[in-house]
Amino acid sequence: MACQECGRARSAGLCETCDHRRRTEALIGEAGLLAAVSSADLADPSSVEAVTAEVRASIEDAIAAEWEQFQQITELAALEAAGPDAVEDAAAHNAFLTAESAAAEYWRRP
Questions:
Q1: What sign results for the dihedral spanned by CA atoms 29, 31, 33, 35?
Q2: Which one-letter DSSP state was computed for residue 40?
């Protein structure tokens, strides 16, 4: 069965890359809401939106920085040789791990 998101064959309905992307988005949303609870005026939607947007931008910056670091320590040519989707898979996995770590930090904050 093909991935319902990207169409990648033999993916049991959702390939690993798309699963990581979905979970990354969920974690970014979770982190934003956790931050909003402690620092936004919950009665003011624009305040909540501002905090969640700030958290999203922060996590997306962290994802980009982690990916850049990964590329510096990895031979992308070797990764590309592993398969046609290997770089995309690695990027999605990297984003997920970074978002997971960020969400855990927001859980630990008072």
A1: negative
A2: S
Residue 3 and residue 14 in contact, taking contact as beta carbons nearer than 8 Å? yes
Q: pLDDT digits over 60-78, tens only?
A: 999 999 999 999 998 888 8
pLDDT tens string 14-58 = 999 999 999 999 999 999 999 999 999 999 999 999 999 999 999
**CA 20, CA 91: separation in Å to the nearest integer?**
9
Helix (H, G, I), strand (E, B) or coil at 1: coil
Burial classification of residue 85, based on how many CB atoms lie within 10 Å of its CB (0-12 exposed, 13-18 middle, 19 or more buried): middle
Contact 5, 15 (CB under 8 A): yes
Q: Distance from first CA to last CA of the chain, Å, rounded?
A: 44
How far apart are the C-alpha atoms of 60 and 30, rounded to whole Å?
A: 14
Q: What burial class does residue 13 get, using C-beta atoms within 10 Å of its C-beta: 0-12 exposed, 13-18 middle, 19+ buried?
A: exposed
What tokens does 56 get?
């999203």
